[in-house]
Write the structure tokens for this entry.
Amino acid sequence: MMYPYMTLNDDTEITHSEEKPDGRVKVYIETPDEKDGFHSAVCWLPDYAWQGIHGYSESEMDYFRQLVRNNAHLILEFARDGGILNATTA
């Protein structure tokens, strides 16, 4: 299951999984693109392991690396609580 986390002004969607049994959380970033369909990347927390980077420039990836690093503590917490919507109503 993937939970919504954030939508950026350029329609980039950032979602995350529930916490996996090994304690990891998948963060998925996807941006619509007229030419390519979608640009995407995956980051596994808490080890910040990036994979499947498609279509993003190095400067865009620098931005996403910093964004994920700055929000990792919240994403990890929400992953344990069933997403931001469940965490905010508790």
Q: What stands out?
A: The chain has a mean pLDDT of 94. The helical segments are 58-80, 84-89. The CA atoms of residues 81 and 89 lie 10 Å apart.
